[in-house]
Amino acid sequence: MSCAGATAAEMAASLRAGQTTPRQLLDHARAQLSRLDGRLNAFLAHTDDLADRQCERAAGMLADDPAGAGPLCGIPIALKDVLCLAGYPTTAGSRILEDFRPPYTATAVQRLLDAGAVPVGKTNCDEFAMGSSTENSAFGAVGNPWDVERVPGGSSGGSAAAVASGMVPISYGTDTGGSIRQPAALTGVVGFKPTYGRVSRYGLIAFASSLDQIGPFAQTVEDAAVAYVAVAGHDPRDSTSVPDPVDDPVSALQLGVDGIRLGIPREYMGAGLEPGVRDRVSEAIAVLEGLGASIEEVSLPSTDLGLSTYYIIAPAECSSNLARYDGVRFGRRVERPSLTETLLRTRGEGFGPEVERRVMLGTYALSSGYYDAYYRRAQKVRTLIAREFDSVFERVDALVCPTSPKVAFTMGTIQDPLEMYLNDALTIPVNLAGLPGISLPCGLSRELPVGLQVIAPRLRDARVFQVARAYEQATQWHALRAPMVASA
Fold it and tell me: What are the residue boundaries of the Amidase domain, all occurrences included (predicted)?
C-alpha cells in the first residue's frame, strides 16, 4: 500500500490485511516530517524512542489478534504540546516551560498509547493555546500547507498542519474558543471539538479550565470519529468528566440526513463573512437539503455578546491557572536577589506578549471592585447563550454554519488583537455552551480552504458526525490535498 495520502482507516485495513506494517507507516511519517517540517515548523519535539517502542508494541498486538486490535493500532499520530507525556518536553509553546518534562502522562494520551497508536512528536501551538494563528508560539510561527506564508489558524496550528501536510493521518489538539475547528477550516481538514467533559482534561496544561477540551484532527469524518472514540470516556481524575456512556459516532456515520432538521443561525451568516466563505457554506447547505434534510433559519440573538463574554471568562481563568508559573516549583527560573524580583523576571522573560495581555485582562476582571461588573456579569451572559442554544435545539436537530469568517490570512498582517480575536467569533459560543462541534472542508475561496461547521446539542456528539459524514460522502472536498502534498 502507498502511504502517501492514505487515511487512518485505509492504513488500519492495510495493517490487518498484512499489506503494510507499523514500521513502514512510521518510516513514511518520519520521511514526510523530514521533508516538509523545515518549511512548516509544525513540530516542536520528536518522540522517536517512544514511537519505536509503540511500533513494536503495535506489531505484537496485530500479530496476536488482528481483528481485536483497535483501529488506531499502528497508526502514526501527533500530539499538541499542551498534552503531558511523561519524560518528554512539554512546553505549551512557551519559554517558561522550555525545559519542563512532566512526571505523568495525560489520560487522553495514555489511552492512545494503550490502543497501540504511534506518537511521532509534539506539535507547535500558540503559547498556552492563546491565539488564532499560531504566530504566538515562542518557538516560531507555523506555516499553512496550502501556502506557507499564510497562517494555519490557531491555537492548534501545528496539529492541523501535521495532518494537512500528510505527515500523520491523525493528530490531537485542544479547543478553548475554536482552536481545533478554526485551524481545521483554514487548512482543509476535519477538526472535532467534543462536548465539554467528554474527554478527560487530566494532564492537559490548562488555559481556561471551564472551556478547554481535547479533540482530533483527521483527513475524513470517519477518521475523526475513530480518533474521538479512542480518547473519550469518564475519568475520575477530572472532576468535570461526564460519567454518561459515550454515544457511538461510528455507527452514526451511515445514518444520513434524510428527515433531519438543520438550523442556519442568521447571526452566523451576516456581516463579517468573506463573500467566498458565505458562498461555499450556502452551497454546502444546499447539498444537505438535497440529501433530504429540512433547512430552517434560526436566531441566536446573543451571538454578538459571545466574544466579549469569552474575553472576560477565559482570561480570568488563565490568570488563575498561570499563577503557578512562578519560577519556584518547576519550569524556567531567572535568579535575582529577591523572591519578588525572581518572580517578576521569570514571568517577564518566560511569557510572551499575548499571554501577558490575557493575564492582565483576567487579573483586572477578577480584582476587587470589578468582579461583579465583569466576571459575574459575563457568567450570566454565558448562561444566556447556553439557554438560547437549548431553545433552538427544541426546533432543530443540529446547526450548520461557517467555521471561520475568513480564509487563511498572510502572516503578520493582523496586528490589532481585537481583529485577531474576531477570527473565533463563530466558534466561541459553542465553547461557552459546552456543545460538540466539527469543521470539515466545503470548498475553496481564493484557492484556500473554507470550513463548514456542524453543531449539535450537548452529549449528542454522534449527531455531529452523522451530518458531517453525509455531506462529506456527497462531495469530494475532503479528498483535495494542499499543493505541497499534491506536488510531492
Answer: 31-464
Per-position b or e across 270-286, b if 16+ CB within 10 A of its CB:
eeebbebbbebbeebbe
Distances (CA, A) of 118 to 75, 229, 359: 6, 16, 36
Question: What does the angle CA 79 – CA 188 – CA 254 come to, to the nearest 5 degrees?
Answer: 90
DSSP 92-138: TT-GGGTT---SS--HHHHHHHHTT-EEEEEE--SGGG--SSS---T
CATH architecture of 8-262+394-486: Alpha-Beta Complex (3.90)
Of 171, 179, 200, 241, which residue is the catalytic one?
179
3-state helix, strand, coil in the chain (%, to 5): 45, 15, 40
Q: If you search the block for the grid coordinates 483527521, which residue do you land on?
A: 218
Cis peptide before 155 (omega within 30 of 0): yes
Residue 453 — φ and ψ, nearest 5°? -105, 135
Give the DSSP letter string of 261-302.
EEEEEGGGGSTT--HHHHHHHHHHHHHHHHTT-EEEEE--TT
Dihedral angle over CA of 303, 304, 307, 310, nearest 10 = -50
Q: Is 341 left (phi over 0), alpha (psi -120 to 50) or beta?
A: alpha
Strand partners, 171: 78, 217
Is residue 80 part of the annotated active site? The answer reads: yes
- What's the grid cell of residue 157? 496550528
Check residue 486 and give its pLDDT. 61
Q: Measured between alpha carbons, how far is 43 from 120 in angstroms, rounded to an integer? A: 9
Instruction: With CA atoms as reference, report the closest residue to 91 among 51, 133, 121.
Output: 121
Query: Is 155 an active-site residue?
Result: yes
Q: Per the structure block, which three cell numbers stand in for 10?
A: 485505509
- Per the residue annotation, which of 14, 94, 137, 155 is the catalytic one? 155
Torsions phi, psi of 294, nearest 5? -90, 140
Burial per residue of 2-21, b for 16 or more beta-carbon CB atoms within 10 angstroms, e otherwise: ebeebbbbbbbebbbeeebb
Instruction: Give the global pTM.
Output: 0.97
Selecting among 80, 122, 193, 406, the annotated active-site residue is 80
pLDDT digits (tens, 9 = 90+) for 252-308: 999 999 999 999 999 999 889 999 999 999 999 999 999 999 999 999 999 999 999
Residue of 38, 43, 36, 195 whose CA lies nearest to 134: 43
Give yes or no: 137 in active site.
no
pLDDT per residue as tens digits for the range 354-406? 999 999 999 999 998 889 899 999 999 999 999 999 999 999 999 999 999 99
